[in-house]
Amino acid sequence: MMGAILAWALFATLLLVAAASDLRQFRIPNPLPLLLVVGFVLGAAAGVPGLDLFGGLLAGVLMMAVGFVLFLLRAMGGGDVKLMAAASLWVGWGGLAEQVVFVTFIGAVLALGLAAVRYFLARLPATLGSGLAHLLPLLQNGQPVPYGVAIALGSLPAAALPFLGG
Predict the structure, then answer these.
(1) How many CA atoms does the CB half-sphere of 40 hold within 13 Å?
(2) Are 64 and 83 within 8 A, CB to CB?
């Protein structure tokens, strides 16, 4: 049980660090997905409950393939693709549908919320609106949506179910 708790804590920490980086810099550093992959392989090889090596690899490879197509279509950034594929390893085949639904829903809410705030700020008096947007680049028109946040927040509950025995 302790191994599963430690593994899930590692997973959650790496995802939250990736989300924070995406919020600040619109970038997910390569070592974070890599650490997720290494942590998954080591945990699954050690027999950590909730980690299924075959199901995880199947989910991860599928999400990497789908993500690659989305990347080519410019619908998803490279860091987001790597993070989603790495997180899918932990979620596994059994939780992949939930992960995709959670990530999609949270991503849509995030994108719509940012669009609304950006729209509102653009209509404020120039000094006030641009001043607020200058404080947080996330609020500036034309900036990307940090989908790493949606990937992290959507993957956490999907991955928690196997660790909790669900």
Answers:
(1) 30
(2) no
The model's pLDDT over 121-132, given as tens digits with 9 standing for 90+, comes to 888 776 666 666
Place of tokens 């992960």: 99
Please state the separation of Cα 127 from the chain's center in Å: 34
- How many Å apart are CA 163 and CA 123, to the nearest integer? 47
Task: Report the domain count for the chain.
Answer: 1
Judge contact between 162 and 50, C-beta under 8 A.
yes
Q: Which domain holds residue 88?
A: 2-163
- DSSP letters, 41-94, are HHHHHTT-TT--HHHHHHHHHHHHHHHHHHHHTTSS-HHHHHHHHHHHHHHHHH
Residue 119, helix vs strand vs coil: helix
Residues 6+ apart with CB under 8 A from 75: none
Please, is 130 exposed, middle or buried when counting C-beta atoms within 10 Å of its C-beta (0-12, 13-18, 19+)?
middle
Q: Please state the pTM of the whole predicted model.
A: 0.91
Residues 18-73: pLDDT tens digits?
999 999 999 999 999 999 999 999 999 999 988 999 999 999 999 999 999 999 99
